[in-house]
Specification:
Radius of gyration: 18 Å
Largest sheet: 7 strands, antiparallel
Shape: globular
Pfam family, one: HalD
CATH architecture: Sandwich
CATH topology: Jelly Rolls
Organism: Thalassococcus arenae
Number of helices: 7
CATH superfamily: q2cbj1_9rhob like domain
CATH class: Mainly Beta
Strand content: 15-25%
InterPro entries: BesD/HalB-like, Oxoglu/Fe-dep_dioxygenase_dom
Number of strands: 11
Number of domains: 1
Mean pLDDT: 97
Order of helices and strands: HHEHEEHHEEEEHEEEEH
Family: Belongs to the iron/ascorbate-dependent oxidoreductase family.
Low-confidence stretches: none
Keywords: Iron, Metal-binding, Oxidoreductase
Strand order of the largest sheet: 1-9-6-11-4-3-2
Helix content: 25-40%
Length: 259
């Protein structure tokens, strides 16, 4: 299988420098880059079949966490934004379950795709995780499952929607709600967000849409799935340095196993 069998390269010419520059400008301006219809219809149907077949192997868990994904801070009361808990619940299939000939694997490994992501994000290099679980994940949200408000630890995320629920499962975000590099956590703004006093943006996407999102300073969540149709989303994760593995504690938390 070739990259052109997976990606609509006529609509999204990954190898053209001018196209990559335009995409980088959009990502820098908006904090998001949305490429609808990125995946060819036949390849998308293959991904749906693979994701459905793998779902029985998914590790499902429910966790509580703060928006900042940090341990509790005893210097603040429990209802302070740094300590206030939200809920995230999902299933996850790990990299070692994704077949070598899966369109996801071909896309992830394709030099053209990796070069495009590097050009758009400004990263000098992109490398897979050193552990066997973390590079490609498929997330499942069944009825009632959600991702609570949070900031990412990484500078950007790449996602591909495989299947959309019939209701709910919306991606909501507030751009630049904090400045992590400057140490400005914006507790008042996060408090307003958690209390529903802040307007949010909704990122609309259909199956086959590729999204690059800068979530380090932009709070985001996925609302509860309000249907019996499972939300399925692939996450393609790279590192700026080779040899990086997700910690054993994180692997046990997110995947329920180390390898």
């Amino acid at each position: 299988m070739q990259l052109a069998d997976i990606v609509d390269t006529e609509a999204w010419p990954l190898g053209e420098a001018d196209f990559a520059r335009r995409c980088r400008a959009l990502l820098n301006r908006d904090g998001t880059l949305v490429l609808p219809g990125f995946i060819q219809p036949v390849a998308l149907e293959t991904l749906r079949r693979e994701a459905r077949a793998a779902q029985e192997q998914a590790y499902f868990c429910t966790q509580t966490h703060s928006v900042y994904l940090t341990p509790p801070d005893p210097h603040h009361p429990p209802d302070h934004p740094v300590n206030r808990q939200v809920t995230s619940s999902k299933g996850c299939v790990c990299d070692d379950v994704v077949a070598a000939d899966s369109p996801l694997r071909v896309l992830y490994d394709a030099p053209e795709f990796r070069a495009f992501v590097m050009a758009v994000t400004g990263e000098a290099g992109l490398y897979p995780y050193a552990d066997p679980l973390s590079s490609i994940n498929i997330h499942y949200a069944e009825r009632g499952q959600e991702l609570g408000w949070h900031f990412d630890n990484s500078s950007f995320a790449i996602t591909l929607l495989i299947q959309k629920p019939d209701a709910g499962g919306r991606f909501e975000y507030v751009r630049d709600l904090r400045d992590a590099d400057a140490g400005e956590m914006n507790f008042d703004g996060v408090q307003a967000l958690l209390e529903g006093r802040m307007p949010v943006d909704i990122l609309e996407m259909e199956p086959g849409t590729l999204v690059l999102f800068r979530g380090r300073n932009s709070a985001h969540r996925v609302t509860p799935n309000a249907s019996d149709r499972t939300r399925m989303l692939a996450v393609l994760a790279y590192n700026a340095q080779p040899g990086v593995a997700l910690s054993e504690n994180a692997r046990m938390t997110f995947y329920g196993r180390l390898g």
